[in-house]
Amino acid sequence: QPRVFSGVQPSGNLHLGNYLGAIVNFVALQESHDCIYCVVDMHAITVWQDPRELSRQIREVTAAFVASGIDPVKHIVFNQSQVSVHAELAWVFNCVARIGWMNRMTQFKDKAGKDKENASLGLLAYPSLMAADILAYKATHVPVGEDQKQHLELTRDIAQKFNNDFSESIAAHGFGDAYFPITEPLITGPATRIMSLRDGTKKMSKSDPSDYSRINLTDDADAIAQKIRKAKTDADALPSEVDGLKGRPEADNLVGIYAALAGTTKQQVLDTFGGRQFSEFKPALGELAVSRLGPIGEEMRRLMQDPGHIDAILAAGAARAEAIARPVMDGVKDVVGFIRRN
Ligand code: ATP
Ligand code: MG
């Protein structure tokens, strides 16, 4: 069976974008693939994380996975830092990848802001660690939101360059003509790019300082309704055709969220709401969001009451992940020419 890997950072509150852009897909892929879902805590510390908050957030992402329907027994759920292969392979990839590749990444430019010299070195090398996450399992498919497309292209470049740079050694060690697969991105969720509720040109993010910019999976019904009511919009009624959403990013985003949550298309949403004002549309959207997210948030809160149980899921998953990744890393060491024990 083809193998899927994907990760979510424990860098703050999980939101509707993470759910519709990634987690819904994670759940669906369990039917047809062997899946590895990772709470990427080493990625999270590329920007400052308060240590006590970080532990809580690692457990919260795990709870969100399970509450959304990911089965940690049939598939693998763990946190990245428990499997040291991620760090070991990332170092080798740091030496394969070029600084120029990293400098071109839009996520680095966005997150580093104006003061690039003062960003962590880890933030620059982020895509190299991400390539290690995926290739440590020789994963063939990676479900992500649209914002991660560029990083996945870099993963393909790193795999290709490793395969080329070491082609002779790869063959000499009996691995054929390629050590790493060229990974396929799966950018196919019900909504691959949900925008901020405060600014229709910025993606919804955990790391956005404004809580009103996003709907968190743990928000209660009142909070969800209030955030949608306060969401930025223009003053016009909704159009009756999708074309009419052009140049109206906030309206486009809210209609897209409705369609994704209802499992329909934007056009179908406009068939119902075209010509109506936001004052009518927003309460309907709020109700739909509460009905979809409410049960997940409730289950997350229930799971969070037993941190020992969550930690046991992560430990068991880490042991199974290690069993796959360690032999892959041993092969890399042989190919590179390192000497290793036994
Ligand atoms: P941060 O702001 O800390 O980077 P994030 O909200 O971007 O957090 P990540 O942990 O970086 O979340 O990403 C987890 C997954 O969610 C990735 O697959 C990413 O592509 C997806 N994702 C993140 N934001 C959105 C969004 N607004 N719409 C759709 N998918 C998203
Ligand atoms: Mg992100």
Automatic annotation (TrEMBL):
<protein>
    <recommendedName>
        <fullName>Tryptophan--tRNA ligase</fullName>
        <ecNumber>6.1.1.2</ecNumber>
    </recommendedName>
</protein>
<feature type="short sequence motif" description="'HIGH' region">
    <location>
        <begin position="10"/>
        <end position="18"/>
    </location>
</feature>
<feature type="short sequence motif" description="'KMSKS' region">
    <location>
        <begin position="203"/>
        <end position="207"/>
    </location>
</feature>
<dbReference type="InterPro" id="IPR002306">
    <property type="entry name" value="Trp-tRNA-ligase"/>
</dbReference>
<feature type="binding site">
    <location>
        <begin position="9"/>
        <end position="11"/>
    </location>
    <ligand>
        <name>ATP</name>
    </ligand>
</feature>
<dbReference type="GO" id="GO:0006436">
    <property type="term" value="P:tryptophanyl-tRNA aminoacylation"/>
</dbReference>
<keyword id="KW-0067">ATP-binding</keyword>
<keyword id="KW-0030">Aminoacyl-tRNA synthetase</keyword>
<feature type="binding site">
    <location>
        <position position="194"/>
    </location>
    <ligand>
        <name>ATP</name>
    </ligand>
</feature>
<feature type="binding site">
    <location>
        <begin position="203"/>
        <end position="207"/>
    </location>
    <ligand>
        <name>ATP</name>
    </ligand>
</feature>
<keyword id="KW-0963">Cytoplasm</keyword>
<keyword id="KW-0436">Ligase</keyword>
<comment type="subunit">
    <text>Homodimer.</text>
</comment>
<dbReference type="InterPro" id="IPR001412">
    <property type="entry name" value="aa-tRNA-synth_I_CS"/>
</dbReference>
<dbReference type="GO" id="GO:0004830">
    <property type="term" value="F:tryptophan-tRNA ligase activity"/>
</dbReference>
<keyword id="KW-0648">Protein biosynthesis</keyword>
<feature type="binding site">
    <location>
        <begin position="17"/>
        <end position="18"/>
    </location>
    <ligand>
        <name>ATP</name>
    </ligand>
</feature>
<dbReference type="InterPro" id="IPR050203">
    <property type="entry name" value="Trp-tRNA_synthetase"/>
</dbReference>
<dbReference type="Pfam" id="PF00579">
    <property type="entry name" value="tRNA-synt_1b"/>
</dbReference>
<dbReference type="GO" id="GO:0005829">
    <property type="term" value="C:cytosol"/>
</dbReference>
<dbReference type="InterPro" id="IPR002305">
    <property type="entry name" value="aa-tRNA-synth_Ic"/>
</dbReference>
<dbReference type="GO" id="GO:0005524">
    <property type="term" value="F:ATP binding"/>
</dbReference>
<keyword id="KW-0547">Nucleotide-binding</keyword>
<comment type="similarity">
    <text>Belongs to the class-I aminoacyl-tRNA synthetase family.</text>
</comment>
<feature type="binding site">
    <location>
        <begin position="145"/>
        <end position="147"/>
    </location>
    <ligand>
        <name>ATP</name>
    </ligand>
</feature>
<dbReference type="InterPro" id="IPR024109">
    <property type="entry name" value="Trp-tRNA-ligase_bac-type"/>
</dbReference>
<feature type="binding site">
    <location>
        <position position="133"/>
    </location>
    <ligand>
        <name>L-tryptophan</name>
    </ligand>
</feature>
<dbReference type="InterPro" id="IPR014729">
    <property type="entry name" value="Rossmann-like_a/b/a_fold"/>
</dbReference>
<comment type="function">
    <text>Catalyzes the attachment of tryptophan to tRNA(Trp).</text>
</comment>
